[in-house]
Amino acid sequence: MLLTITCTHQPASDLSYLLHKHPGKVHDIEISTGVAHVFYPEVSSARCTICLLLDIDPVALVRRSSGPRGNDFALEQYVNDRPYVASSFMSAAIAKAFSTAMNGRCKDKPELVAVPMPFEVEIAAIPVRGGEAVVKELFEPLGYTIILQRHPVDPQFPEWGESRYFTLRLKNTLTVQQLLSHLYILIPVCDNDKHYWIGQHEIEKLLEKGKDWLPAHPAKEFITMRYLKHQRSLANQAMEILLQDETTGSATEDDNPEPEQKERVHDLRLQAVRDELLQANAKTVVDLGCGEGKLLRLLMAEKQFEQVLGMDVSYRSLEIAKDKLKLDKLPTAQRKRIELIQGSLTYRDKRIEGFDAAALVEVIEHLDEPQLAALEKIIFKYAKPVDVVITTPNAEYNTKFDGLPAGEMRHADHRFEWTRAEFQQWGNRIAEQYNYSVVYKPVGEEDPGVGALTQMAVFTTKQMIIGMNRFLSYGK
């Protein structure tokens, strides 16, 4: 199977710097079932072409297989098109051969990384389940000009009709990182198959490689389903993340507008939540919707918290949190205290169960009604921490914002903003339904008429309260 990428940027030979492959050499790269050969058939200032040729060993392919991949026929693992067509093997080879370029790095000419260049791509041959319409649905929204040549089943027997194999030619002007990310994801989507087991990690790969274009793609659901090999549970998780704004589930200190205060409002929220967790004597805490890790940093500064877990739907926010917390540089003992994970608050996740306390700082207002109902069950029925601390905007305080029209919310991604009565009505129902007690507290300066900017609810399991009362009575 052969992939060629031609660049006509001036000078076109800059492509060799971007792809980190010397044009005067043939590069042989070991892959799981063969060898990928990378070479340049033409290099000049006007035009540069690089080829990725996969040499798949059919015997190795069978030996690595645990059985038939599909249910087409019993001998599929022995008689198939995998060594001869562009498939997920090609995607794996792209990731291995051009990993530096895919990560947006160029040592010798870093200024080229963000430069859009005119590219021509040819893939021979690529299987497409769904034909020409699928190719257009995938590539046209990304700005590609498409030329397709469909191959017959057998030229000697035209009555057999057309096959599902095409020679695909693409033209577009974009960065090399964008080009590679498109090919990496969309080649196996065209094929509608994968040569390896699909698990949770595949969601992370999809979201990372497609983070700059997939959320806005009109066929994102179709792409997600095929990329995850039609595993509905995984596709639902990925789609929920794609459909949420990057701020969803993250601390929203930039909610606009907010009044200028001597101390930033979001800092007050975080300090108030930390103080509640300290007062609750919690030793293990999960920060749900941890964002860039500001609450985590406060918790790590307190020796009382022996284990701290941060979970967020946004992979990008977690990467920022990792950098800001300097996890790679922490002493071993400190590093064992903290963990960051990606996950959704509307699916049960056993990784967040068993903690003394949970915090949700400015999270619930980003969820619509079905998502909020799912979160309630995930937190209070399944995870069931002893203490839960939740903050959310106080809608009554919005009248104090001069630039905020009546009835408008503070942030475009908020699905609702509750008054104090509405928040308490919700919290009281949760407490009664899941056997918790709840108290409500203002966060920040409190106005006599409209309350504080932020409202907080602190839930505690009634079993804990009963046990503490018995302990105190016994002590007397």
TrEMBL record:
CDD domains: AdoMet_MTases. One of its GO terms (molecular function) is small RNA 2'-O-methyltransferase activity. Its cofactor is Mg(2+). Residues 1-242 form the Hen1 N-terminal domain. It comes from the Bacteria. Keywords: Magnesium, Metal-binding, Methyltransferase, RNA-binding, RNA-mediated gene silencing, S-adenosyl-L-methionine, Transferase. The keyword RNA-binding applies. It catalyses: small RNA 3'-end nucleotide + S-adenosyl-L-methionine = small RNA 3'-end 2'-O-methylnucleotide + S-adenosyl-L-homocysteine + H(+). One of its GO terms (biological process) is RNA methylation. It is an enzyme of class 2 (transferase). Its EC number is 2.1.1.386. The keyword Iron does not apply. Pfam families: Hen1_L (PF12623), Methyltransf_23 (PF13489). Belongs to the methyltransferase superfamily. HEN1 family. This is Small RNA 2'-O-methyltransferase. It comes from Niastella vici. The lineage of its organism: Bacteria, Pseudomonadati, Bacteroidota, Chitinophagia, Chitinophagales.
